[in-house]
Amino acid sequence: MKVKTILVSQPEPKVENSPYSRLIEKEKVKVDFRPFIHVEGVEAKNVRQQKIDLNNFTAIILTSRNSVDHFFRIAEEMRFKVPDSMKYFCQSEAVAYYLQKYVVYRKRKIYVGQRTFNELIPLIKKYKDEKFLLPSSDSLKPIVPELLDEVGVNWTRGIFYKTVISDLSDLRNVYYDILVFFSPSGIESLMKNFPDFEQNDTRIAVFGNSTVKAATNAGLRIDIQAPTPETPSMTMALQKYITSVNK
């Protein structure tokens, strides 16, 4: 069956000429964006209940833009003035760049990984005497605590925000040829919003092994998968599939 409509379970890209724009133009398909999950901040009193005192830390591990936003939000709510001496360990350049929203970059001690958390570990390992705070959501990849424990640093996790399933009830009678998912939470949102969901001719596209597992466990048929050596991005995988079925 030909593909005419696609729903991506993420916010619409803010950049002009995104890969999705090129896909729309080349394949003449309609692509809508709708976050299936969203982030909500945890209140300062809940952070205190986790026995977290921001005065006790000398370094912050930041894995995402959300972790940056919610660390500084909590600091403000707790009336904690972040000292100039605080060290920031950012998982990627994108996270480090985003940090400039809150601090004067050149006056701070900022250490930047390449892209994955594994690549940040050697930098953290060099500063074993620091007391690290990891602001995170309520869902954390198991590899993160495993690696931090492995290198033997003094670290504490603080749940500063949580992932919440979005209300998708307005989509109940709206049908798309392809649904695109990037996380197990997206699959969970689909099944919670539509417990009677029947896939039928709807194609499911998934990114990453954990999303594949979640989709399979939910009884969904996976039609498009990324990353692969041939299609390292989701848009490339979609392009390849659409080209083959829309002949």
What does this entry look like structurally?
The protein is of the alpha/beta class. The chain has nine helices and twelve strands. The chain has helices at 19-27, 44-49, 65-77, 93-99, 117-125, 143-151, 184-193, 209-217, 234-245; strands at residues 5-8, 30-33, 37-41, 59-62, 87-90, 109-112, 131-136, 154-159, 161-165, 178-181, 203-207, 222-226. The strands form three sheets. It has a five-stranded parallel β-sheet. Helix 5 packs parallel to helix 6 and helix 7 (184-193) runs parallel beside helix 8.
Please write out the topology.
Elements: E1 5-8, H1 19-27, E2 30-33, E3 37-41, H2 44-49, E4 59-62, H3 65-77, E5 87-90, H4 93-99, E6 109-112, H5 117-125, E7 131-136, H6 143-151, E8 154-159, E9 161-165, E10 178-181, H7 184-193, E11 203-207, H8 209-217, E12 222-226, H9 234-245
Parallel strand pairs: 1-2, 1-10, 4-5, 4-7, 5-6, 7-8, 10-11, 11-12
Antiparallel strand pairs: 3-9
Helix pairs in contact: 1-9, 5-6, 7-8
